[in-house]
Write a structure and sequence with these properties.
The chain is of the alpha+beta class. It folds into 2 domains: 206 residues, no CATH class; 235 residues, Transposase Inhibitor Protein From Tn5, Chain A, domain 1 (Alpha-Beta Complex). Helices cover 38% and strands 20% of the residues. The protein contains 15 helices and 19 strands. Strands 6, 10, 11, 12, 13, 14, 15, 16 and 17 form a 9-stranded mixed sheet that branches. The longest helix has 25 residues. It is globular, with a radius of gyration of 26 Å. The termini are far apart.
Length: 482
């Protein structure tokens, strides 16, 4: 009897040629660039460090997948766009992903259970137990993790990306609502996001993630900021002992405890949005009148006038603080904005430019630059699906948020180091994935080598070669530094 599953598929003819398709190409992967992620992972030591945050009580005699391999599989999958655990039902048979996860037999012929031969990587159920082990106590859930150690691991990995001799470090803080579509533990309805959600606290230094703390949405958006900053500052001081630190955030973080804490620290400054009130608008009224007059006379699309003054609330603030006011008038009407800061108006003594903290420049060049963090968070959600927090338990969803953040860190390092000076130097994480990682590869495994063949028609060959060269040099430098 003819087996139809092995019959070639016929498509429309191409001139006088038949177009025939079958499935006899052998072992192929659609993620040929995953080896770049492996190069970065090995340079940072991320999978090994993260594995040290877990407690493995499995019987080693029956274990096919080590902890670093499980973690690498989960993080690489997320970075490659496979955010659902179910995706690993077919990914586990990908020989190139298996090689990237340091599987000595990428073809999966050495499995303990013969029924799983041909699938070198872990199944979705195994990865699911990895995520749920802190919440379930059964004979199957034996991979618990220490949340405080993972939190510190992310901070350590992020701070390692900062230059040791940096003289100034700017930290961006933000809270972002991640909508929930189930009965997750700790969910709360947010009128602002118009749905049930979590409200994680993120801290970034440029494009580098330092903090990703899952919080419920029933508390203030700035809750937990000071304890987070204490840990972050300690890590940065250890890495960059001479750096001054500027904390930058929107008006949701304009809280007395945050500003007072920064003022008590040495070489720590803040530049935070200030919510409007009737007193502040009254102080800004002359500048708004001036901006209105200039706009009427100039005929420009908009006019801005900046001013500064000292301001103190009646009850909540412990001292008067420097406030920068922006009085803007356009066809849409008046648009007043305010920022509170303890940055010196005349700059720092070692500054080459003493006017960089003047009202207009502080607002437009320093404060408005925090909007770039919004783009980073969008990459977290749109490119890495960091808001896919679909387990029931809050602790497991926190682990998922961390894993997504580690995946973003790998992609960010590929971009920052491997793509430096090239076309993809400022590309989004999704573009880096699409153009450098998503390429078909033929994988041939022999006794002495794993031979990966990429398409000669691929448009990004030169960028891939340059990225590999830069990452190889960087990995060697990281190894030399210990």
């Amino acid at each position: 009897m003819t087996v139809c599953a092995h019959q070639p598929l016929l498509f429309s003819d191409l001139g006088n040629r038949k177009v025939v398709v079958d499935f006899s190409a052998g072992d192929l992967s659609s993620d040929g660039g995953v080896l770049l992620l492996r190069q970065v992972d090995h340079g940072l030591g991320l999978s090994r460090a993260l594995a040290g945050c877990f407690h493995d009580t499995r019987d080693a005699r029956f274990v096919d997948h080590s902890l670093p391999q499980l973690i690498a599989q989960r993080i690489y999958g997320q970075a490659l766009g496979y955010e659902d655990l179910n995706d690993h039902a077919f990914l586990r048979r990908d020989p190139l992903l298996a090689a990237a996860c340091d599987k000595l037999d990428p073809l999966g012929q050495d499995r303990f259970n013969p029924a799983f031969c041909g699938a070198a990587l872990a199944a979705p159920c195994t990865l699911n137990r990895l995520e749920l082990s802190n919440n379930k106590s059964t004979r199957c859930h034996k991979l618990s993790h220490d949340p405080s150690r993972i939190e510190q691991c992310l901070l350590t990995m992020g701070v390692r990306c900062l230059p040791k001799h940096a003289r100034e470090v700017v930290l961006d803080l933000d809270a972002m609502g991640h909508l929930l579509h189930g009965a997750q533990e700790g969910r709360h309805f947010s009128a602002y996001y118009d749905g049930y959600c979590y409200l994680p606290l993120y801290v970034f230094c440029g494009d580098v993630p330092l903090w990703a703390q899952l919080r419920t949405a029933d508390a203030d958006g700035a809750e937990g900021t000071v304890p987070a900053l204490e840990k972050i500052m300690a890590a940065i001081r250890k890495r960059c002992p001479r750096a001054r630190i500027i904390v930058r955030a929107d008006s949701g973080f304009c809280r007395e405890e945050i500003m007072a804490w920064c003022e008590r620290q040495s070489e720590v400054y803040y530049c935070v949005g200030l919510p409007k009130n009737s007193v502040l608008l009254e102080r800004l009224a002359p500048s708004l009148f001036d901006a209105q007059a200039r706009w009427c006379l100039s005929g420009a699309a908009s006019t801005r006038v900046f001013t500064e003054f000292e301001y103190q609330t009646q009850k909540t603030w412990s001292r008067a603080r420097r406030v920068i006011g922006k009085a803007e008038v356009s066809v849409a009407g008046q648009n007043p904005r305010l920022v509170v800061t303890n940055l010196p108006a005349g700059g720092f003594p070692d500054d080459d430019d003493s006017t960089r903290f003047a009202p207009a420049r502080l607002y437009e060049e320093l404060y408005c630059a925090r909007g770039e963090m919004e783009n980073v968070l969008k990459q977290q959600v749109l490119d890495l699906q960091a808001d896919r927090l679909s387990t029931h338990y809050q602790a497991s969803n926190q682990l998922r948020l961390w894993l997504a953040t580690f995946a973003y860190l790998l992609l960010e390092r590929v971009r920052a180091i491997g793509c430096a000076g090239g076309e993809l130097a400022r590309a989004t994480a999704g573009s880096v994935r699409l153009k450098l990682l998503k390429v078909a590869a033929v994988v041939r495994v022999s006794v002495r080598r794993v031979w990966v063949q990429l398409s000669r028609a691929w448009a990004w060959q030169e960028q891939f070669r340059a990225c590999h060269a830069r990452l190889s040099a960087w990995s060697a430098a990281q190894a030399a530094d210990g």
